[in-house]
Amino acid sequence: MTATLLIEQLLNGLQFGTMLFLMAAGLTLVFGVMGLINLAHGSLYMVGAFAAATAAAATGNFLFALVAALAAAALAGALMEMLVLRRLYRRDHLDQVLATFALILIFSEGTRWVFGSFPLYLDVPKALAGTVRIGSLSYPAYRLAIIVIGVTTAIGLWALINRTRLGVQIRAGEADREMIAALGIDIARLYTIVFALGAALAGLAGALIGPIQSVQVGMGEPVLIMAFVVVVIGGIGSIKGALAGAILVGVTDTLGRFLLPVLLGTVMEPSAATAVGSALASMSIYILMALILVWRPTGLMGS
Amino acid sequence: MKRILTTAALAAILAASTATAAPLKVGFISTLSGGGAGLGIDARDGFLLALKQAGDAGSEITVITEDDQQKPEIGVQLADKMIQSDKVDILTGIIFSNIALAVVPAAVKQDKFYLSVNAGPSQLAGKGCDPNYFNVAYQNDNQHEAMGEYSNTLGYKNAFILAPNYPAGKDSLNGFKRFYKGELAGENYVKLGQTDFAAEIAQIKASGADSVFFFLPGGMGISFIKQFSNAGTGLPMMGPGFSFDQDVLPAVGDAALGAHNAAQWSPDLDNPANKAFVEAFEAEYKRLPSVYASQGYDTALLILSAQAKADIADHDAYHAALKAADFPTVRGSFRFGNNQHPIQNFYAREVVKRDDGVVTNKIVGTAFEDHVDAYAAECPMK
């Protein structure tokens, strides 16, 4: 094992982490502000990827595809909030889970109805194909771009919440929703905006991941589970926590997959080390979550 | 009045056709929703195409289609319903081995025939073989074995091999290793359902491998092919046929060009039955058939051939008619071995781009002739 390989794996972990952040940010925002558990967040990720694939196939322009994904996911999110979720804020979490699970099924079969059962084609844009040399390391340019976009989005989101009027309303909504309603802020509109913002972030994640993964029905659910782990680790409702949790989960998962079989190989025979190592690696983020919850029951930045 | 006349005429036609052969009810349980739906839909479309082409003989066969949602417990419920309330004579259609293992043993015990369009778990090929169970596709290890054999011809000496950490993944790598003669640069099991392979690709790059063999079903394979070609390793890819089939290739495009894979069928396999099948499938469904479609088609042809020879009421005669496998297979040649699994050729295929821009497979060699699966000897049937 060389230093180059380790650095490459750290970059991979960082890239995975930034993608998880885009998913987890929307989830934690919606939970923090509205107290809503949205299982259908993965469907918005899928909407983003399908919109990007369709727009890219029609225009051949990846930037346009990204814009289409953001718009489609935000629109789907706003409609979802206005038509269904609005009725669920006062209900308990079990009702919300049931209703948003139904939304997953509706989105999945609806997508199949429109796009068919076969995965769609979406490729890395020409400008970002191939690899970039960093010292002795050659790293895929597209993955670097995902890191850059993810970090930029994180900064933008921080500025939005801490430096703008909308951000003040969002933070106030988290703290005391009756009070801001009493102050004359249209809470229904605020909720729709927050939900659409979270949805757009999920759509962006889907569109960014589409070119390197499979654009297919049901692609959102595995990511959703990871995003929930991130939200719990980071502390429910905290954007900063989501960022820290996402990077931690991304790096732990990547390094676990890579290092555990190697480390176990020093104490047992190779085939057993591969089997045990890969089994442990798939559990690593859940072990991490359990340890963090023992240490801080409300998550890293939860209150 | 006119309506009564047509109804009477229809009834007469129906009566006439049932007089020649007993009507047959087939239960088709397959994965038609969720991430694995593409495979089930292709198998079903192939199956129904063969019945449609058969005309009157096909219309005597009633097909009840149900979706198992890729869940074994749903598969079992559907099979119970089809056997007890729909009274089907034959069950077929299951794509995934874990569902087949849940459904098949109980179904064959109730003296229903089960014809597998895809799943071929080793348990049902060896000691667990059964006279009522026929596999019309392959035994699960076969495509991996064939690729292992052909990798020697390609001259690979240091392959990195990769599969998901579940029974079929382990069978895959064991099947490959059974025939591959070179060294292994590495062997890696990933989590089932994993879609980011950056960590594994970095390891492959660092391992000094001269090639990579992988079995990653469905979306996992699509993700891997895209990411691997983007990582700029330049290493050749190979896998079983279903990792590079018509459900995968349109989604990965040029990223898969040049990859080798092995299967018992290919759209360009040169025989008249296959040419007619590929043309008819494209005309009917506006897409190229996949290996699953070819297996569904052959399964329907097998039922039609048995139907022409025997009456389902006579179980032994019908069994003999199925076992004879006297149908015009799209694979060129096909017969059943002692465990009622196929003895057939396996071809090495290469992913190419046709002149019209469609990415598909081309046969470049033969990996095995009349290949018998590794478990046949353990089956007590003769």
Note down, in words, how this protein is organized:
Chain A: Its main location: membrane. Chain A: InterPro entries: ABC_transp_permease, BCAA_transport_permease. Chain A: GO terms for molecular function: transmembrane transporter activity. Chain A: One of its GO terms (cellular component) is plasma membrane. Chain A: It is found in: Cell membrane. Chain B: Belongs to the leucine-binding protein family. The complex is a heterodimer of chains A (303) and B (382). Chain A is mainly alpha-helical. Chain A has a domain at 13-217. Helices cover 75% and strands 3% of the residues of chain A. Chain A is built from 11 helices and 2 strands; from the N terminus they run H-H-H-H-E-E-H-H-H-H-H-H-H. Chain A has helices spanning 3-34, 41-59, 62-83, 93-115, 141-163, 165-175, 177-182, 187-209, 220-234, 239-265, 270-295, and strands spanning 131-134, 137-140. Chain A has a two-stranded antiparallel ribbon. In chain A, a hairpin with a 2-residue loop joins strand 1 (131-134) and strand 2. Chain A starts with a helix and ends in an 8-residue tail after the last helix. Chain B has 382 residues and is α/β, with parallel strands linked by helices. Chain B has 2 domains: 2-140 and 270-344, 3-Layer(aba) Sandwich (Rossmann fold), CATH 3.40.50.2300; 142-264 and 346-371, Response regulator (Rossmann fold), CATH 3.40.50.2300. In chain B, strands 6, 7, 8, 9, 10, 11, 12 and 13 form an 8-stranded mixed β-sheet that branches. In chain B, strand 12 and strand 13 (359-371) form a beta hairpin. In chain B, helix 2 packs parallel to helix 13 and helix 4 runs parallel beside helix 5. The longest helix of chain B is centred in the N-terminal third of the chain and has 19 residues, at 2-20. Chain B is globular. Residues 13-20 of chain B have low confidence and may be disordered. Chains A and B meet through helix 1, helix 4, helix 10 and helix 11 of A and helix 2, strand 7, helix 9, helix 10 and helix 11 of B.
